[in-house]
From TrEMBL, chain A:
It comes from Sulfoacidibacillus thermotolerans. Keywords: ATP-binding, Kinase, Membrane, Nucleotide-binding, Phosphoprotein, Transferase, Transmembrane, Transmembrane helix, Two-component regulatory system. It is a multi-pass membrane protein. GO terms for molecular function: ATP binding; phosphorelay sensor kinase activity. PANTHER family: SENSOR PROTEIN KDPD. It is an enzyme of class 2 (transferase). This is histidine kinase. InterPro entries: GAF-like_dom_sf, HATPase_C_sf, HATPase_dom, His_kinase_dom, HisK_dim/P_dom, HisK_dim/P_sf, Histidine_kinase_KdpD, KdpD_sf. Pfam families: DUF4118, HATPase_c, HisKA.
UniProtKB/TrEMBL annotation, chain B:
It comes from the Bacteria. Residues 126-226 form the OmpR/PhoB-type domain. Keywords: Cytoplasm, DNA-binding, Phosphoprotein, Transcription, Transcription regulation, Two-component regulatory system. PROSITE patterns: OMPR_PHOB, RESPONSE_REGULATORY. This is Transcriptional regulatory protein KdpE. Residues 126-226 bind DNA. It is found in: Cytoplasm.
């Protein structure tokens, strides 16, 4: 459609109308010479008005005046006596010529205005549709990058010009560019930092800092081949929209000024919406982290002070009152000191683990691991607390090796088993099941302890969350959060289920793939 | 007179603690607060063993060990912290004899010091070793448990022998693979090591899920129970 319009535009310009007018008048003259000699001269003159009217409506003033002139000449030469000569015997025909000219100019002007109005209203309709389309797309997007892409693509397609948008990205500015190339083949969108883009960085910075548009057609940076529009809402500069120069540019920015302004407005509002949303999200997050910080302080100050109170109290007691303490009392106090110190050690370990997880400093050192071996290490580490529980292990004799970070998974198991001990009673049973299903290891730990209130199965994995029923048992609410972090870093999941009549069932699912191929190599060299 | 032990640690409290406890166990203790002082003490005082903290302010622990190893086979036990397993493995592979993760129980450190001193003296020469109810005859390459012959493949036997000869001492995966297979370390061989350890446990341990002879040091390697 575009191409056809172009072609017809070309027909309307240059010498074509003049040639067509000449041909048409020639044909009309020939036809009148053959059949029209019986006509009155006045009728013939009227017929010569037809090409004038036609060219006036169709091609405007120039061709219609030309048609009037050629028509008068042909009329005079072929039809006004003396025929085949230019001697104007009757000056009345000069009046016809004047009438021709007036008709030509008046009609052409009217027709031109009409065409102009039609063209403008079509253009406005197209512009409105285009704006509507873009605004519809904008409302559906909530990512700044996607939005930048949509804006530059749309504006580039509308103006047939390269378009850039410059938006703040971190501390610097990022640039998204869409080139426009004829004929109509789509070029992708390029992204880069502002400094690496092909834009004039100074012009961009000028616009951002002075809050004024710049570039082509303005007072500043007018030598630039593009116009730099400011995107700004209520004193906050949001970015810069740059529309490049093409052959259409002067028409583009000049005639369609309102459309450019509408695009700039729409881009501003859209970008502002996303940026404000982001700010609101950050504000929400910081409120959340504020809440966490308070919880952390409360929890840590309590969890650190309690064992410290135990240690300091015991030690000062032993130093100051050594003579009144029996050897048994002293031994009791020493055990208090040891237990308190170990509790602090656990807390510090968990805190550091949490920090590592949260700061992204946790790197998995995956290896092929023997799960029986890992379980052995964990049970050994917990042998003292587990003395007063019945531990049952169900594990198939042949399990494939797990491709995991053994140290971290052992920490997960230690945390879960410690909880199982902490929240259950002496003499109760703890069941451990390990199995493998389709490349996923399933580790289940069940206890007969106090369990969790209904509906809190998810929450117990939140940082610093402690179930109401568990509050009288000391703890930070970090252990399970760390477990979850570690298991998820392995691409697995961990969840808790209430057990009937009492207790909790912890399920860990870990993908253990990548093991088969690796263990395949080297089998020959190493087996005996 | 007990063995002379050099403690290289920048924390005064830790040095004091080690000095008091080790002296109570009959050792002579000398102290160094920096890596540089430690190196001087190694040369001047000729200690029998060094306890080296890896978090020294002046010199990297690995560097101190490297300088000691340039001219001395002095047994070195390094003090490390949790979450630094790979660093610990590196320092064990480059010549440290054993490690302790802070915080530690004193009894364990004393046991490791004794093992390291004994290995330094090459005390293990008896051909028949009794480890609980397991008997190992190094001359005849025969292993018995409760008087019953335990059938071991050559690799299993070599692995067990390596572990037993270093009883009480940690051996990294790399060290074991090198001793038994004489090969470069790789993920595949490390996995095979785990498989053979599993076989040995099934044949020798009373409860293979709760081993008491061949203990796993998470992220580091294995340690055979000190039976002497």
């Amino acid at each position: 459609m575009e191409v056809r319009r172009k072609k017809s535009e070309r027909l309307n310009q240059g010498v074509w109308p003049y040639l067509l007018v000449t041909v048409a008048i020639g044909l009309l003259t020939l036809a009148l010479l053959k059949v029209g000699l019986s006509f009155q001269l006045a009728n013939i003159a009227l017929l010569f008005l037809l090409p004038v009217l036609f060219s006036a409506t169709r091609w405007g003033v120039g061709p219609s005046i030309y048609a009037a002139a050629v028509g008068v000449v042909a009329f005079d030469y072929f039809f006004v006596p003396p025929i085949f000569s230019f001697s104007v015997s009757d000056l009345r025909y000069l009046i016809s010529f004047a009438v021709f000219l007036v008709v030509a100019i008046l009609t052409a002007t009217l027709a031109f205005r009409l065409r102009q109005q039609v063209y403008e209203s079509q253009q406005r309709e197209a512009d409105t549709a285009s704006l509507y389309q873009l605004s519809k797309r904008m409302t559906a997007l909530d990512d700044l990058d996607d939005m930048a892409t949509a804006i530059v693509s749309h504006v580039a397609d509308t103006f047939h010009a390269p378009v850039w948008i410059v938006l703040p990205k971190g501390d610097a500015y990022g640039c998204v560019k869409k080139d426009f190339m004829e004929p109509l083949h789509d070029v992708g969108v390029e992204r880069c930092a502002l400094a690496e883009s092909d834009l004039c960085v100074d012009a961009c910075l000028y616009v951002l800092q002075n809050g004024k548009s710049a570039g082509l057609g303005t007072e500043n940076f007018s030598r630039e081949a593009a116009r730099y529009f400011l995107l700004k809402t209520e004193e906050v500069v949001r970015g810069v929209l740059v529309i490049g120069a093409t052959s259409d540019l002067h028409e583009g920015i000049g005639v369609r000024q309102h459309l450019v302004e509408a695009f700039v407005g729409l881009a501003t509002v859209s970008v502002a919406r996303i940026q404000l949303e982001r700010e609101a999200r950050i504000a929400r997050l910081s409120a959340e982290s504020e809440r966490l910080r308070t919880a952390l302080l409360d929890s840590i100050s309590h969890e650190l002070r309690t064992p410290l109170a135990g240690i300091i109290g015991s030690v000062t007691g032993m130093i100051e009152h050594a003579e009144v303490l029996s050897p048994e009392d002293q031994r009791d106090l020493l055990f208090t000191i040891r237990d308190s110190a170990m509790r602090m050690n656990r807390l510090v370990t968990n805190l550091l683990g949490m920090v590592r997880l949260e700061s992204g400093m946790l790197t998995l050192r995956r290896r092929l691991c023997d799960v029986a071996d890992m379980l052995g290490v964990v049970l050994r580490q917990l042998q003292d607390p587990l003395l007063r529980r019945k531990v049952q292990i169900q594990m198939p004799a042949e399990l494939p090796p797990f491709y995991v970070d053994d140290v971290l998974i052992e920490q997960v198991l230690v945390n879960i088993l410690s909880n199982a001990v902490k929240y259950s009673f002496d003499g109760s049973q703890i069941d451990i099941q390990v199995r493998e299903q389709d490349g996923v290891a399933v580790i289940i730990v069940e206890d007969e302890g106090i369990g969790i209130p209904e509906g809190e199965e998810e929450k117990i994995f939140d940082k610093f969350y402690r179930a109401e029923s568990a509050k009288r048992i000391p703890g930070t609410g970090l252990g399970l959060a760390i477990c979850k972090g570690i298991v998820e870093a392995h691409g697995g999941q961990i969840f808790a289920r209430r057990k009937v009549p009492t207790g909790i069932r912890m399920v860990i699912q870990l993908p253990i793939a990548e093991s088969q191929e690796e263990s395949g190599d080297g089998r020959k060299n190493l087996s005996d | 007179m007990g063995a002379k032990i050099l403690v290289i640690d920048d924390e005064l409290q830790i040095r004091k603690l080690l000095k008091v406890t080790l002296q109570a166990h009959g050792f002579t203790v000398i102290e160094a607060g920096t890596g540089a002082d430690g190196l001087v003490s190694v040369a001047m005082e000729r200690p029998d063993l060094a306890v080296l903290d890896l978090g020294l302010p002046d010199l990297d622990g690995a560097e101190v060990l490297r300088q000691i190893r340039e001219w001395s086979q002095l047994p070195v036990i390094v003090l490390t912290v949790r979450d630094k397993e790979s660093e610990t493995v590196t320092i064990l592979d480059s010549g440290a004899d054993d490690y302790m993760t802070k915080p530690f129980a004193m009894g364990e450190l004393v046991a490791r010091i004794r093992v390291a001193l004994r290995h330094a003296a090459h005390a293990l020469t008896e051909p028949v070793l009794q480890i609980g109810d397991v008997q190992m005859d190094l001359a005849r390459r025969v292993v018995e448990k409760q008087g019953q012959l335990v059938r071991l493949t050559p690799i299993e036997y070599d692995l067990l022998k390596t572990l037993v000869l270093h009883a009480g001492r940690v051996l990294t995966h790399h060290q074991l693979v090198k001793e038994v297979w004489g090969e470069q370390n790789s993920e595949a061989t490390a996995h095979y090591l785990r498989v053979y350890i599993g076989h040995l446990r099934k044949k020798l341990e009373d409860d293979p899920t709760r081993p008491t002879l061949i203990l796993t040091e998470p992220g580091i390697g294995y340690r055979f129970k000190d039976f002497q």
